[in-house]
Amino acid sequence: xxxxxxxxxxxxxxxxxxxxxxxxxxxxxxxxxxxxxxxxxxxxxxxxxxxxxxxxxxxxxxxxxxxxxxxxxxxxxxxxxxxxxxxxxxxxxxxxxxxxxxxxxxxxxxxxxxxxxxxxxxxxxxxxxxxxxxxxxxxxxxxxxxxxxxxxxxxxxxxxxxxxxxxxxxxxxxxxxxxxxxxxxxxxxxxxxxxxxxxxxxxxxxxxxxxxxxxxxxxxxxxxxxxxxxxxxxxxxxxxxxxxxxxxxxxxxxxxxxxxxxxxxxxxxxxxxxxxxxxxxxxxxxxxxxxxxxxxxxxxxxxxxxxxxxxxxxxxxxxxxxxxxxxxxxxxxxxxxxxxxxxxxxxxxxxxxxxxxxxxxxxxxxxxxxxxxxxxxxxxxxxxxxxxxxxxxxxxxxxxxxxxxxxxxxxxxxxxxxxxxxxxxxxxxxxxxxxxxxxxxxxxxxxxxxxxxxxxxxxxxxxxxxxxxxxxxxxxxxxxxxxxxxxxxxxxxxxxxxxxxxxxxxxxxxxxxxxxxxxxxxxxxxxxxxxxxxxxxxxxxxxxxxxxxxxxxxxxxxxxxxxxxxxxxxxxxxxxxxxxxxxxxxxxxxxxxxxxxxxxxxxxxxxxxxxxxxxxxxxxxxxxxxxxxxxxxxxxxxxxxxxxxxxxxxxxxxxxxxxxxxxxxxxxxxxxxxxxxxxxxxxxxxxxxxxxxxxxxxxxxxxxxxxxxxxxxxxxxxxxxxxxxxxxxxxxxxxxxxxxxxxxxxxxxxxxxxxxxxxxxxxxxxxxxxxxxxxxxxxxxxxxxxxxxxxxxxxxxxxxxxxxxxxxxxxxxxxxxxxxxxxxxxxxxxxxxxxxxxxxxxxxxxxxxxxxxxxxxxxxxxxxxxxxxxxxxxxxxxxxxxxxxxxxxxxxxxxxxxxxxxxxxxxxxxxxxxxxxxxxxxxxxxxxxxxxxxxxxxxxx
Length: 941
Prior knowledge:
The protein is an alpha/beta fold. The protein has 32 helices and 33 strands.
């Protein structure tokens, strides 16, 4: 936090500065013997000098002085803290002057202080840090918040308050929370202001936001200077202002802003901690000042409402302390506890001469009185490793010597400060206090939220954050001056100066915005040829224009430099070529199926016929007969199922199952074949040498491209087509004649253009030409704006609204729709049915046939095991065959023959034989039993 001062007469300040300078230069610096800390013994000294420097007559100074004195009194009153050693506080008033602050620092160094508290000014801290670095005296600053003071350049600087680094990230989170993308920074132009705003710019960039303008003013700026600054700021688009200043100049900003009506509805004012510090330092603030601050959102250092803090305030009810006073109080206790450790570890307070300051060449400055603190490095190491709980919370430093757990209160001024949430680097914005969130696990869900805010103008509606000021210039919109396809955009004599489908869409979208958008159209192009659209987009990116409206294609390289709205029409690249009608072929009936489909279908006809014959021939007389007759039956039955005209009846359950599934497959195949053949014979068939983008790339024929189209770069850069093959065409008439002449007549083989243009061209050319192949890119048209432009987001929402309510389609019908023609040329190969569409049906039928054959085979095997030759002749033939052949191979022939005969045997005959065999077996067993009964040895059981 920069120094905050109360105005005092200039002659008083000047008198003090001169007096201090004379004292430091002309009078030899005396050392008070009673306060001198020279000791070579390891015992604790009776008194230790500590310095403090700040502007006493300031908002921070008056409050922190009370906190410092209160802490010193408590430390000295408690013998257990330093165990007999007292702190001797030496205070120097810097009087808001960098020069006086430097002199004060030198005077403090002569007093052999072991540490210095302060300064509160970041500018003075930069200078004094060089002094303490040389003399090795720790500098504990409770008010210097400049983030650059944490640099390694200042090893003896210890910040005992929060760095503005974290505060600026808190501001960035607030800006992102409300969806604003641009802010204007208003700040005092010194180390404190410049460096803080620099960090804010980095923080906003990580949120895809930015500082659109930095409005800096001098520390002693007058009302007129601030007025001139704010008048310029008010002409800009952004209405989100971040004020980083001190109370004197900060309150001047609000006073001047009020006179310019900049504190009304629609404006957003965000301040850093200087404003809450001012309010906390005064018991009451006058009504006029509070009215100026109505609706402001500010950040204040978060001081936990702990029991220790409550007891401290209860013991000192008359103190008005701001957050910096609490940090100053804890700084004294930090130094006291560090000194106790320092002495406990054997440290002693001793000083030695600086060899660099001995040779003063007779100067009266007496720089030799400035001595090095021998224990400074050890005390510094102890200070940065301390860890205790103070009034401000946990006092502990990270690796960059910043206090851990930085956090802020987010307050809203509305009749008085009202807390709407918290911010910490652990959880971001939240309505839950940081102390509670610190107990949560690191991976808990962070819900960024704040309570409602009363904005300037006493409204709870979140301001949009930017406007088009009435006294500002209108939006400069560049429009292509087309010479072809003028339905989309063209020059006109109307008040707008332009007309077309794209203009109607833009004007309709602008009317849906909740704020006026003054704009003018600027034609781009000479009117003889279409302009290059990449130049329009470049002009927007380079701030020559504010936006580009027209048939502008959204492509990757353009989105890198500008922001586009939601596409209002889809349009990809297609190929247009001359086509001719194909004559019908005598073999057209073969075209519905691919050759793989024909082969598989024919094979399955034979396969199913064979399966049904196997399942039926043992029990169905229609499937029996001589081998030649059975073979003809298989072929006839197989192919007759194609027309459902088979005469043979199936009687087996398995055969009927296979046939039903096969007839279903045949039904699907017949229907598909009929539909495809009908399409081939009735739809006009067109042919072209160019079948699509792939065949166009492989050829060497010239290609037509529209003037100014991105297709030129796309074909050369992405598809590697030689530029010598590309031919620029100016209008639809050039399209028509180039395609008619063809490559041999000096024309082109095809034209590559966007679908929206091609649709218009095909209609205008009476459908003489056709699109070949498919659309090979997907893109759309949009309006181009500067990067992170909020207008692009709002117009995208408006375009979506036009699409939803049907207005976008009505405008399309008005400008572009006439009696159309067929867009895509019909390709015969695309209508052919392949095996991929039917393999599931064939798989089902094949599996069913295999299952049926398996069941049939198992049944035959079981029957064959029960079957034996029924006559002795058959048995004798078997014995003769075994004797005559005398080999294993020979014995298998009758068995294989028997098996074949068995399988071919009619089912009724087989059952009769099995029945006779069973009867013979019983007859044979009966006589044998009688012989046993009649034998001499026979007996009965």
